[in-house]
Amino acid sequence: AQKVTQAQTEISVVEKEDVTLDCVYETRDTTYYLFWYKQPPSGELVFLIRRNSFDEQNEISGRYSWNFQKSTSSFNFTITASQVVDSAVYFCALRGGIQGAQKLVFGQGTRLTINP
Amino acid sequence: DTEVTQTPKHLVMGMTNKKSLKCEQHMGHRAMYWYKQKAKKPPELMFVYSYEKLSINESVPSRFSPECPNSSLLNLHLHALQPEDSALYLCASSPPAPQGYTFGSGTRLTVV
To answer: What is the pLDDT of residues B31-80, one digit of tens each?
Structure first.
């Protein structure tokens, strides 16, 4: 079975602070794919990043960065110099390589509030 | 076109009504999905269509009936729903792994 755990239910910070959202996953697949999605109040799930299990390079995109550590089964997401527009619910998700290829399993989500 | 379009955006229906949710994509994706999302919860998979064939049904009650008329369209037919079925219904599509899913903006369904 595949499982994604986002232990932080809600985070609230003041604008310009850095914030890290944690994600821990479980899977028996040797090949798998990890994702982060952003869900603003409008409801649409916005794709942020995909990481393959065989690529442990960290990635930076503007103010966003992701730290993938296979040894600890974690895929954490950091927002640097947060802005009010970053306020949303963020979901970490896992898609298996073979058996789980057609299922995208989500964590419980972290509600991020950036206060001005 | 890199979007998944869902209609209607909002729907209120009675427990005896029959209604349909529609989803359309023109990205050439051959897998399409229905997810249900209750308030403050993550999306939960309902159905998966692969090459217009139903490949996964996550034990969804028969009052929800999916249909995939062609590779671009996905419908969800609703009949005799219960108030607890009120939720955001999300449609998504994807190419084969390892790509991610593209989600629509959803239909907010209220059953009264």
So the answer is: 999 999 999 999 999 999 999 999 999 999 999 999 999 999 999 999 99
Q: How many whole angstroms from its chain centre is CA B55?
A: 14
Task: Determine the residue of chain B that is closest to A103 in CA distance.
Answer: B45
- A35 interfaces chain B, CB cutoff of 8 Å: yes
Share of residues in chain A with pLDDT > 90 (%): 71
Are A108 and B41 a contacting pair at CB < 8 A? yes
What span, in angstroms and rounded, lies between the C-alpha atoms of B11 and B108?
A: 6
| B42, B96, B99: residue with CB nearest A107 | B42
Q: Which residues in chain A touch residue B7, judged by CB atoms under 8 angstroms apart?
A: none
**Spatial distance between the Cα atoms of A12 and B80, rounded to a whole number of angstroms:** 41
Contact B99 A50 (CB under 8 A): yes
Given an 8 Å threshold on Cβ–Cβ distance, is A109 in contact with B42? yes
Torsion, CA A8, CA A61, CA B6, CA B47, rounded to 10: -60
pLDDT of A19 strictly over 90 = yes
